[in-house]
Amino acid sequence: xxxxxASIHRFPxxxxxxxxxxxxxxxxxxxxxxxxxxxxxxxxxxxxxxGGRLRKWLPKSAFVRGAAAAPLQAVxxxxxxxxxxxxxxxxxxxxxxxxxxxxxxxxWVAPLWADSGKAPPARLVExxxxxxxERSTQALTDVKQPWVSILSLSSxxxxxxxxxxxxxxxxxxxxxxxxxxxxxxxxxxxLNRMRIGEVELKLTxxxxxxxxxxxDTETGRLDGDMPADxxxxxxxxxxxIYAEVRQGGTIRPGDLVEVL
Length: 260
Fold this sequence. Notes:
Elements: E1 3-10, E2 19-21, E3 24-26, E4 39-42, E5 76-80, E6 83-88, E7 91-96, H1 103-113, E8 121-125, E9 148-152, H2 153-163, E10 176-179, E11 193-196, E12 199-208, H3 226-234, E13 238-247, E14 249-251, E15 256-259
Parallel strand pairs: 9-10
Antiparallel strand pairs: 1-2, 1-10, 1-15, 3-14, 4-8, 5-6, 6-7, 9-13, 11-12, 11-15, 12-13
């Protein structure tokens, strides 16, 4: 079967919401534009700020995240013009300008984070360079490297069959979904090159999964233990693979996918 790009997804705020894109312009050695641009720092991590600004990438433990609070997994939404529009089944909708109202998200998310056992939400941040540096493109992804995440619809279907229940795409928070690969073929593609439309990528590392994937993204409630299920089935907790963009260009759903 010919493999094609099925969908493109971007997550403007780390662990909080997400959106589907009609196209994306990828640049060599850069993350998907706008992906994890923002993250919600908790109070115990405020000491990382330099002059009130975040100057560098931080690990996910510094932020509000789904692995510590399953209800966050049910947040949906992304950009609506110059504002972010977010929804959750247990909260009123939130529409806010992240540049002008950075405090709005911390207040809205607080009830979803309350049982995490972690410090309260504090500040919405993005990586900002010093005045002497060029504008940063550092994404606040789980890995410091500027990679995109690639997942397979056939692998998802196979895993759903093995677990006997639907899982859906949202819990994995992947950037690019591929249709047409053999189930789990991506596991053996590490260090291979691939092409999506006019874009060329090098596949780098498998994606290890955390407790965030154990939550139902419609309800924000745990419906299993996904890392444990993956370990039981495969002796590892990987699902999906990272890739580095080597040759840039614009990609769209339907583009041909070739392993080189």
